[in-house]
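S.,

Sequence below, as promised.
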Amino acid sequence: MSFDASVVGRWSEPRPFDVTPASIAAYADAVGGPSPVYAVVPAMDLVFAVAGTAAPAELRARVVHGQQDIFFHRSLPVGETITVRAAVLGLHGKRSGTVATIGVRTYDADGALRNEQYVTEFYRGVPTDLRLGTPSPALPTDAPGGPPLRTATVPLPLDLPRRYADASGDRNPIHLDDEFARNAGLPGVIVHGLASLAVAGHTVLADRAEPVRLSCRFTRPVAPGDALTTRVWVDGPGYRFESVDEAGAVVLGAGLVVIA
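The prediction came back faster than expected:
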């Protein structure tokens, strides 16, 4: 089993997506309220398709979401059709596995760029010597200083993975099938990283500020039925944040929000 390095930098054809009020409402219902993380939904299927051009199906069973970085230029036009394109931007190996960086570009009907995204996938236990293309943008490496601006704890419902899968289109079986998840080396079904990010985002953006960048690293799986505690610090024109599970383990790290 090996990665196909020839696909690095090859952008997909544009794929249309209808931004409907029903789709936005379903996503908000799944994650507990409106969220800028909805921006990932139009490209969900395309990201999986593009990632699949770089990694065979046998390797896809070993993948976890490592990092998400969203740059917002303009909000999505509700009730209109947009287009998305995606590409594998980089493949970088290390002893514990291989990182694939997938880029996404979202455009409106006039061709204006609405957002850019960087999706980092980590193929656990699949080491390579690959050093191709570009990685995702850097996230903070230092810990936030001082007391947090605010802290909130939110329970993660047992049915969150199913509801999030329905609302987002992300039906990776590690979120829906206990046996599949255990065979993939996980303790059981885990919550989607993006679902955790959307839930945490309600605490981070409690002042309803509009972000121009929203990013985090998914550092540890969290199980449905657990609770997510998010701590937020002021950081220049924005915030730093992290989220921990009930045991105090960090599950969302290096969280960063930039406000215009």
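The radius of gyration is 17 Å.

Coffee later?
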